[in-house]
Amino acid sequence: MSEIAVTYKGIELDIALAKGYFRMGNDIYTTTDVFHEFYGKHIIYNPIFWLRVNLSKVLETNSTKRIRQRCARFSVTFKQAAITEEVESLYSQYFVTISFDGYPSCKKCIPKLNTEEAVFDTYMIEIRDQDLLIGVGYFDKGSDALMSVLHFYHPEYKRFSIGKYLLLLSIDYAKAQQMSYTYPGYIILSNPKMNYKIFPNKEAIELYLLKENLWDCYLNYTAHDLREYFMKNIAGYDFED
Description:
Blueprint: H1 11-18, E1 22-24, E2 27-29, E3 33-39, E4 42-54, H2 62-70, E5 75-80, H3 85-95, H4 106-109, E6 122-129, E7 132-141, E8 145-153, H5 162-176, E9 181-188, E10 205-209, E11 214-217, H6 223-234
Parallel strand pairs: 8-9
Antiparallel strand pairs: 1-2, 3-4, 4-9, 4-10, 5-6, 6-7, 7-8, 10-11
């Protein structure tokens, strides 16, 4: 009797995302913290909170309009995902400029793409300045949501906010597919570099509360609230003792 392969496509991906699970390689995982640094013999971790964008609350802002105008001359294509030499070349140019942990290549991040072993339904966004590839975004499709997997861009085009433009384009695609949510990943409480994921407007951002197994509006919490929530409900510290 053959085994039934596990896949994360359609509603299966929607269910996993709604419970705070996200893609890692060719599987899914979840976590509540990420490595920060060594302190003597001890490892210091930073708390994280997973995010999603409630598309029913997304509105255009002055900031999103400026980015769309800035990028208006570029061509955009949505298509079935592929990893080509051109894409890997662009990623390698991007990778050497980042100051955070990342995959050494696209294939390391997205293995088994377009094979029988691939368990995700993966698409991509291409942004070009005439014939030059300047931005790529990979995402996995569910039935009612999509999950951003990997975004990168040409370093010489940083002034165009291509990373944020890719977030806008993923929202555009999800809305056109009549989806309810996009999942951009997580924020790190002690690392503001990840805060671009609350773009385009904070009112539409929800964060996952593990203890309650629910999503709540990001604006309902300060950074202090989230750190206290993590320490009490996830790390298990009781400040009243």
